[in-house]
Amino acid sequence: MEDLLYQIFSDIPRQGPGSRFSTLQAARLITDVPEEPVILDLGCGTGAQTLVVASHFGGKVYAVDNFKPYLQILELNAIKFGLNETIVCRPGDMFNLDFPENYFDIIWAEGSVYILGFANGLKSLKPHLKTGGYVAATEISWLREDIPDDLAAFWEIEYPDMKTLASNLKTVAASGYQLVDYFALPPTAWWDEFYTPLEKRLVKLRQQFDDDDEALELIELTQLEIDLYRKYPDYYSYIFYILRKN
Ligand SMILES: C[S@@+](CC[C@H](N)C(=O)[O-])C[C@H]1O[C@@H](n2cnc3c(N)ncnc32)[C@H](O)[C@@H]1O
After folding, report:
1. Looking at residue 8, what is its pLDDT?
2. Rounded to the nearest whole angstrom, what is the distance from the C-alpha of residue 103 to the centroid of ligand 1?
3. Where are the domains of the chain?
């Protein structure tokens, strides 16, 4: 299954919705950091956002993921773009981060804080942040309350902990962070670097795995996720939350 996941996601620009434009939009909201900030990119995947963050801020960017093949792709790209002095790839588990307390000026988490759970993630990452340090995280969030049944049924299984934007803003306040700003990723950030290349990939993988029921199940689940976003783009989005530790 790990091999299939790699085949689905490694060959596309990102492993979740996002774009260079949105990463930069979030980065520009972070204004009060040292000349050479220490940054954690949590669940960096193949590192599309790591490259943008590293070239925007400089300093040191520790790119952490528990899937080493993704880090190998990022390592090659860091060299290609002359960012290998800035980006340090570290295989690691976000549930057990091997970094000191009060260490980071910024923790970046695009499409990855859900793994810890939004509330739990904000809590568990906080000790690693310096006071005044920032979190920039995307989290899939409901934008409306009247969720259609088929959409609710899908996400009830895939991410039962998905909350409304309003509820996540309450969690931010309750977790001891100041809200700097937030914005929803536009549909182009879902399609251009994620769902469009992913959907093309699924066409090929359906042929490649046509005798593997388990693989086909995952492929069709991924297709359903894409189809539901196509049908209901106004009901939910990834929200980029930019927060500051009090
Ligand atoms: C949805 S992807 C997002 C990747 C990337 N940030 C992006 O936006 O394209 C989530 C990433 O988290 C990584 N991951 C999953 N569980 C993890 C864990 N326990 N510790 C560290 N990384 C993890 C996955 O390997 C994957 O690369």
Report:
1. 82
2. 21
3. 15-187+236-245
Ligand 1 atom with least separation from CA of 14: 9
Nearest CA to ligand 1 atom 11: 43
Alpha-carbon distance of 80 to 200, in angstroms, equals 26
Ligand 1, atom 10, lies closest to the CA of 112
Q: What pLDDT, in 10s, does the model give residues 218-232?
A: 999 999 999 999 999
Q: Which residues contact 49 (CB under 8 A, 6 or more apart)?
A: 14, 18, 23, 41, 108, 110
Q: What percent of the chain has pLDDT over 90?
A: 95
- The per-residue pLDDT for range 92-134, each reduced to its tens digit, is 999 999 999 999 999 999 999 999 999 999 999 999 999 999 9
Dihedral angle at the C-alpha atoms of 187, 208, 15, 11, nearest 10 degrees?
A: -100
DSSP code of residue 130:
E
Task: Domain 15-187+236-245: give its CATH superfamily.
Answer: Vaccinia Virus protein VP39 (3.40.50.150)
10 lines ligand 1 (CB under 6 A): no
- Nearest to residue 73, comparing CAs of 102, 106, 50? 50
> What's the CA-to-centroid distance between 44 and ligand 1, angstroms?
6
Average pLDDT, the chain: 96
Q: Ramachandran region of residue 80, left (φ > 0), alpha (ψ -120 to 50) or beta?
A: alpha
| Å from CA of 46 to ligand 1 middle | 9
Structure-token match 């993988």, residue found: 205
pLDDT band at 7 (very low <50, low <70, confident <90, very high): confident
Q: Taking a C-beta distance cutoff of 8 angstroms, is the pair 72, 47 a contact? A: no
